[in-house]
């Protein structure tokens, strides 16, 4: 598929896809006319990359762990250093904190929507007293 189709199917800009390719996260074949041609498997790969970026992982870490994520539940990481494992643990813990924050925010929005849908206005929290 060409870059436009990959862009549409993943809701990712062409510019961003070229960046992923520049960073060696995805690869394309070149057609005789110079157009990029992507394999079908890159639809899932791009979605996976976007999810990892949205979770806050930097490209340098994604590049290292992406080969491990090719098959569900198959992890093969022969060159993992203690430093890399520590980095991944820190990133995992940071993602957990973000998830917890998102859950709290989602629950607050749900409570607000519940109150509004009952026809009641939510009671605003009092402003802190000035000292």
TrEMBL record:
Domain HTH merR-type per the UniProt entry, residue ranges: 1-68
Which keywords appear in this protein's UniProt record, sorted alphabetically? DNA-binding, Repressor, Transcription, Transcription regulation
Q: Which InterPro entries match?
A: DNA-bd_dom_put_sf, MerR-type_HTH_dom, MerR_fam
* GO MF, one example: DNA binding
PROSITE patterns from the entry?
A: HTH_MERR_2 (PS50937)
Q: Which domain of life is it from?
A: Bacteria
| Protein name (database record) | DNA-binding transcriptional MerR regulator
What organism is recorded for this protein? Kitasatospora cineracea
């Amino acid at each position: 598929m060409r870059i436009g189709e990959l862009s549409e199917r993943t809701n990712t800009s062409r510019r961003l896809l070229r960046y992923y390719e520049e960073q060696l996260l995805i690869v394309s074949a070149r057609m005789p006319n110079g157009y990029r041609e992507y394999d079908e498997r890159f639809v899932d790969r791009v979605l996976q990359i976007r999810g990892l970026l949205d979770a806050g992982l930097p490209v340098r870490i994604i590049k290292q762990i992406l080969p491990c994520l090719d098959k569900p539940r198959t992890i093969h990481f022969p060159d993992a250093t203690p430093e890399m494992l520590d980095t991944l643990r820190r990133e995992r813990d940071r993602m957990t904190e973000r998830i917890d924050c998102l859950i709290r925010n989602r629950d607050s929005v749900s409570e607000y929507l519940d109150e509004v849908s009952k026809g009641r206005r939510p009671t605003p929290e009092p402003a802190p007293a000035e000292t």
